[in-house]
Amino acid sequence: MNPGDRVRVDRADRTYEGVLLPSSTDDHLVVKLEGGYNVGVDRAEAEIETLEEDVYEIDGTDATGPEDDDASDEGADSEIEFDDDLPTISLLSTGGTIASTVDYRTGAVTAQFDAEDVLRAVPDLAGRANYRGRVVANILSENMEPPLWQDLARAVYEEIEAGADGVVVMHGTDTMQYSASALSFMLETPVPIVFTGSQRSADRPSSDNVMNAVSAVEAAKSDCAEVLVCMHASESDDVCALHRGTRVRKNHTSRRDAFETVGAEPLGTVDYDTEEIEFRRDYQQRGEADLELREDLADDVELLKFTPGMDPEFLDVVEGSEGLIIEGTGLGHVHTDLIPRIEELIENGTTTVMTSQCLEGRVCDRVYDTGRDLLEAGVVEAGDTLPGTAKVKLMWALEHSDDVEEAMGTSLAGEIQERSVPWE
């Protein structure tokens, strides 16, 4: 019995069948089940039967999961040839689950695909476009940092300048909304820039990587020259939603339809079966804007969520920062005891912007006394800008705007809606 064998494991009243993985200890077995999950079993208490030997090759470095193996073989055998009648789409990889596979040394999911691997793993992409692959980073998105936003923006700029008809960015989902916001402000684009990712890795039968990648490529061929996020619109494999990069938020940890446009319906949808794209609201059309990159960002901007009982001394941590986004309650409030300390920060040069921790609606600090006191202290209102988007925007505005207060109250990339109303 060796790693890579298909085995049946009986323990007490439970039976498990799957692929035997290497284990970090001799006392336990690790089995990858058909559903994509791993189970650990005490070896001494288990009866083990080998059903089939060497089902999957495990060499400690390049092993892939059952579904990955089939997809990789199919993709590797198919040639992607240049076709003058097809648009050119640049695939930029930053890592994340959509570019991940199972490491059979540990049974964990690791980011180890580059952009060319994505093409091999998703053979459905073939014939839809001519592709150029480029690796910008190979990280899990929780490790994304502003300098990498700048690297990514430069890479997108270079790809468009070199003639790409659209760009698809493979990105981890945890911080995708921040990166999409950053590129929305840093780039004027004449072609679509589409972020996509995967909530579930390719070794799982419920993986969303193929549908999201295919739909993202179709969106990158569309007439909408904006920064978009393309992810499942529901738990079913039927439609992907196209969210504007500055209005999207990840609202669930693991569902395939985790991403939502806050305060409005998605900008559009992609029907996976028919490949039909439908846009429901106005958007910047292909070719309307001239390509421009403005990548500089202030690197000392913080986002702070106010909670009841917060000590004013907590604000000492942002002393000397260039900017501060406060995620206030309701219409944009904090405890009155914090206002004098906030005023000191502003007087010392920290641009302070108020957003709301409510999922929908806009700040309005003219209704209650606390809000009026905040405005008098110099706090800037950000309308219904999402707090994460507001942080990215302030980082950008501090470097590119002569009037930061005006910029934060003006919709520059669709981040502020004209009015907050139910959208059903």
TrEMBL record:
Tagged with keyword Endoplasmic reticulum: no
UniProt cross-references to CDD domains, sorted A to Z: GatD
Alphabetical list of PROSITE patterns matching this protein: ASN_GLN_ASE_1, ASN_GLN_ASE_2, ASN_GLN_ASE_3
Region (Disordered): 57-78
Active-site residues, as the UniProt record annotates them: 97, 173, 174, 250
Cross-referenced InterPro entries: AsnA_fam, Asp/glu_Ase-like_sf, Asparaginase/glutaminase-like, Asparaginase/glutaminase_AS1, Asparaginase/glutaminase_AS2, Asparaginase_C, GatD, GatD_N
Residues covered by the Asparaginase/glutaminase C-terminal domain: 300-406
Residue stretches making up the GatD N-terminal domain: 1-51
Annotated catalysed reactions: L-glutamyl-tRNA(Gln) + L-glutamine + ATP + H2O = L-glutaminyl-tRNA(Gln) + L-glutamate + ADP + phosphate + H(+)
Nucleotide-binding found in the keyword field: yes
GO biological process: amino acid metabolic process; regulation of translational fidelity; translation
GO molecular function, one term: asparaginase activity
Domain of life: Archaea
Keyword field: ATP-binding, Ligase, Nucleotide-binding, Protein biosynthesis
E.C. number: 6.3.5.-
Domain called L-asparaginase N-terminal: residue spans: 89-282
Function statement: Allows the formation of correctly charged Gln-tRNA(Gln) through the transamidation of misacylated Glu-tRNA(Gln) in organisms which lack glutaminyl-tRNA synthetase. The reaction takes place in the presence of glutamine and ATP through an activated gamma-phospho-Glu-tRNA(Gln). The GatDE system is specific for glutamate and does not act on aspartate.
Oligomeric form and interacting partners: Heterodimer of GatD and GatE.
Family to which this protein belongs: Belongs to the asparaginase 1 family. GatD subfamily.
UniProt xrefs under HAMAP family: GatD
Record's protein name: Glutamyl-tRNA(Gln) amidotransferase subunit D
Protein species of origin: Haloterrigena gelatinilytica
